[in-house]
Write a structure and sequence with these properties.
Distance between the termini: 24 Å
Structural class: alpha/beta
Shape: globular
Largest sheet: 6 strands, mixed
Helix content: 25-40%
C-alpha cells in the first residue's frame, strides 16, 4: 500500500498524539520486509534527523513570533495534507520505505511543539495551534479535530510538563515503533521482568495434542462488537470520520452511500440489532458451550466524542445482554483499548491527577463481571482490570489488560517501567500454576504482535518461553481479522513455542464480515485441537433487513489446512508450507478467511507481495525482530 511521503505530517505534534488514536483501524496490508541496505540507510538517517529538527524549529518559531505562516511553511502543510481515504490507515500499514521520512517529520515537528510548550505556551495556545494544523492538514474535519484534541490534550501536556527529559526522538520511536526511529533512551528499554531461572532451554518446537476428539471442551470467543448507539440505517457511510453511519452525519444524497440495516463494510460500527443477533446466535447454535471468552472492544470508533458516562452506558448494555443470555455459562471478559476514556489511554505510573485515573472502568468491570467470577478476582480487577480464575481443577484462565502496552497509550511516555507491574504478576501466576500442575489459557485484547510497545513484547516473549509447557493457548482480538500468530524462541527461532488465536470481530469495521469462533479444546491438556469460524455475508444480510442474517460455518481450521495437530510444532509445519510456491493456494485461502470472505476485501484482491506480508504477520511478534519474516521471504518465490 503506497502513500505520499508527507501523509503523517503534523501527527507528531501534540495534535498528532491525539489523532493517532483516530487513525487506528484493523490492518488491511502490512509491510514487514526490509529492503537491501536498510540498516546502512537508517544509520545515515540519524544525522539527517538532527538537521531536519533544527530547520523545522526555526520555521515553527518564525510562525509563532510573527503570527503568520511563511509561504514555505504553508507549502509544507499543503504538500502534507491527506485525503479522506487516508485518514483511517494505520502507521504499521505503511511500506518500510516510508519509515525514514515519517520519522524525520515526527522528530522535526514534534520537537518544535515540545519546545513551544516548554517555553511557556499555554493550554489554549497549544490547543489552538494543533486544531489549526489538524484542520489544514485535513487529518480530520475541524469538529473532529477539536473533539480529539480536547479529550487528549490534558494528559499529554501533563506528560510533557512532568517529563522534561522526554525528547522528540524517544517520543517518535515509541509511537512509530519502526526500525528507522531508533529508541536509545534507557528509561524505555532497560526494565525487565524477574523471570524464574529454573526453566529448560528450548531445544525443539513444542508438540501437542492429537486431533479433535468427542470429549473436547467447547469454548466460544466473541470479540470486538463495537456497539454504536448512534448507528442509524440509511445514514451516511462515507462521512470520512473514524466512525460513520451515525445520526449526526445525516442521510446522503447518493443511496449507495447509505448504511445497511445489519451494518456496513465502511467505517461503521455495529447497530444494536446486530449485536443482539450475534449473541443470540451463539446461545442458540452452541448451547453446549462450556465457556465464553469475550475479549474486549465494546465501545465504537467515535473516539472524538466519548465520555465516561457514554462508555458506561454501552458497556452496561452489552454485559447485561451477555448476562441475560448466558446466566449459567461462564463468560470471561477482558477490556479492549476502546473501553477507556479517552480511547487507548490507560493510566500508568504515579500520576497525581485523579481525573486521569482509569479506576472508574476497573470498578465498573469488577461489578459487572462478578456474575461469572469468584470473589478473589475482584482485587486485581479493581487495581488494573486484570485477573486470574481457576476454571476447573487443573485449568486456569489468566485475563490480561494489555491495553497498557498499546503504543497509543500516552502514559508509556510518562513512566515506561510501570509496564512491568502486570507482566510480573503474569509471571508469578504462571510460576504458581506450574508448581501446582495447572494448564493456562491467556486472554489479551491486543495481539502481542499488534501495536504493543516493543519492550513489552520482548518481556512477554521471555515469559512465554519460560512457561511454554504451562500455557496451553492464547486468545486475542483487536485486529478484526480471523488470524493467528506463532511464537518462536528468541535465541533459537527455528523452534515454535506458542500459538495465539484471534477471534476476529462482531463488527464489520472495516471491510470484514461479522464473525465469532468456536474452539475445541482437549479436556486433559487444554490445548486447542480445532476451531470453526462462523460468519454471515453482510451484503446479503442487508438485502433482507426484515430477516435475521444467514450465519454459516465459514471453515474448520483443521479440515481446511490438514494439520497434523494445532500445537506450535504442527502449526509451524503449515507455516513452512505456506512459505513456498506449492503452498500459495493455501495461503490465499488463509487470507480470504482472514478477511472473513467479505465482499469489500475480496474485490480488492491480494497480490503475491500482499500474501507474503500476511504470512510475515503470522510469525512476527516483536517489532524489532523480523528474522522469521526474512527467512520465509527467501523461499517464497523459489
Amino acid at each position: 500500500m503506497q502513500r505520499a511521503m508527507w501523509v503523517l505530517f503534523g501527527r507528531v505534534t501534540l495534535l498528532s498524539l491525539a489523532l493517532l488514536a483516530a487513525l487506528q483501524t484493523p490492518t488491511t496490508e502490512a509491510d514487514r520486509l526490509q529492503p537491501k541496505g536498510y540498516r546502512e540507510t537508517v544509520q545515515k538517517l540519524q544525522k539527517f534527523y538532527v538537521k531536519f529538527e533544527d530547520k523545522v524549529s526555526r520555521e515553527f518559531r518564525r510562525w509563532k513570533e510573527e503570527g503568520t505562516m511563511s509561504p514555505h511553511f504553508r507549502q509544507l502543510i499543503h504538500g502534507s495534507a491527506i485525503s479522506k481515504s487516508e485518514r483511517a490507515q494505520e502507521i504499521r500499514e505503511l511500506p518500510t520505505t516510508r519509515e525514514g521520512p515519517l520519522c524525520a517529520i515526527c522528530r522535526g515537528f514534534g520537537g518544535s511543539v515540545l519546545e513551544f510548550r516548554r517555553e511557556g505556551a499555554t493550554r489554549e495556545e497549544v490547543f489552538n495551534t494543533t486544531v489549526e494544523l489538524c484542520t489544514m492538514l485535513n487529518l480530520q474535519e475541524e469538529s473532529i479535530c477539536r473533539g480529539l484534541i480536547e479529550l487528549n490534550i490534558d494528559p499529554i501536556l501533563y506528560i510533557v510538563d512532568n517529563r522534561p527529559d522526554l525528547t522528540s526522538a524517544s517520543l517518535c520511536a515509541v509511537v512509530f515503533q519502526s526500525g528507522a526511529c531508533v529508541l536509545d533512551d534507557l528509561a524505555f528499554t532497560e526494565w525487565q521482568v524477574d523471570v524464574d531461572p529454573n526453566g529448560t532451554p528450548v531445544t525443539a518446537s513444542k508438540t501437542g495434542t492429537a486431533q479433535r476428539g468427542p470429549n473436547d471442551l467447547k469454548i466460544v470467543q466473541i470479540t470486538d462488537l463495537h456497539f454504536d448507539p448512534n448507528y442509524r440505517t440509511g445514514y451516511n457511510a462515507e462521512c470520512g470520520a473514524p466512525a460513520c453511519c451515525r445520526e449526526s452525519q445525516g442521510i446522503p444524497d447518493d443511496p449507495a452511500a447509505a448504511s445497511g440495516h445489519w451494518g456496513d463494510y465502511r467505517n461503521c460500527d455495529t447497530p444494536w440489532n446486530a449485536v443482539e443477533d450475534l449473541i443470540d446466535r451463539v446461545a442458540e447454535e452452541h448451547s453446549d458451550a462450556d465457556f465464553v471468552y469475550h475479549t474486549g472492544d465494546i465501545i465504537d470508533h467515535g473516539i472524538w466524542e466519548t465520555s465516561i458516562g457514554y462508555n458506561v452506558r454501552s458497556i452496561n448494555r452489552v454485559i447485561n445482554k451477555l448476562r441475560e443470555t448466558f446466566p449459567e455459562t461462564p463468560v470471561y471478559n477482558i477490556l479492549g483499548n476502546h473501553e477507556a476514556h479517552p480511547t487507548n489511554v490507560y493510566e500508568l505510573g504515579e500520576v497525581t491527577r485523579p481525573d486521569f485515573s482509569t479506576n472508574w472502568l476497573y470498578h465498573l468491570s469488577a461489578d459487572l463481571w462478578s456474575h461469572w467470577l469468584p470473589r478473589a478476582t475482584e482485587q486485581t480487577i479493581r487495581l488494573g482490570g486484570y485477573y486470574t480464575a481457576l476454571i476447573r481443577p487443573g485449568f486456569r484462565v489468566i485475563a490480561l489488560n494489555n491495553n497498557d502496552c498499546y503504543t497509543f497509550n500516552w502514559w508509556i511516555l510518562y513512566q515506561p517501567d510501570a509496564l512491568k507491574g502486570q507482566l510480573q504478576w503474569l509471571h508469578d501466576v504462571l510460576l504458581q500454576a506450574e508448581r501446582t500442575g495447572e494448564k493456562v489459557h491467556i486472554l489479551a485484547h491486543l495481539p502481542i504482535s499488534s501495536d504493543c510497545f516493543s519492550v513489552w513484547q520482548r518481556e512477554y516473549r521471555r515469559i512465554l518461553e519460560r512457561f511454554r509447557d504451562t500455557i496451553s493457548a492464547q486468545f486475542h482480538g483487536h485486529t478484526h481479522k480471523d488470524e493467528f500468530n506463532v511464537f518462536y524462541a528468541s535465541e533459537n527461532p527455528e523452534f515454535a513455542v506458542g500459538v495465539a488465536w484471534n477471534g476476529g470481530s462482531g463488527t464489520a469495521h472495516t471491510n470484514v464480515n461479522p464473525n465469532y469462533v468456536v474452539y475445541y479444546v482437549n479436556p486433559d491438556t487444554y490445548e486447542v485441537t480445532d476451531f470453526e469460524s462462523y460468519a454471515y455475508n453482510l451484503t446479503s444480510a442487508n438485502l433482507t433487513p426484515d430477516e435475521r442474517p444467514d450465519w454459516f460455518r465459514m471453515y474448520s481450521f483443521q479440515e481446511e489446512f490438514g494439520l497434523s495437530d494445532l500445537s506450535p510444532a504442527g502449526v509451524d509445519e503449515l507455516i513452512q508450507r505456506l512459505g513456498t510456491p506449492a503452498g500459495r493456494d493455501d495461503l490465499r485461502r488463509y487470507w480470504e478467511y482472514k478477511v472473513k470472505l467479505a465482499d469489500a476485501s475480496l474485490a480488492n484482491d491480494c497480490t503475491e507481495d500482499c500474501l507474503l506480508n500476511h504470512l510475515c504477520e503470522i510469525v512476527t511478534n516483536q517489532a524489532d525482530d523480523l528474522r522469521k519474516c526474512q527467512e520465509l521471504s527467501d523461499t517464497f518465490f523459489d
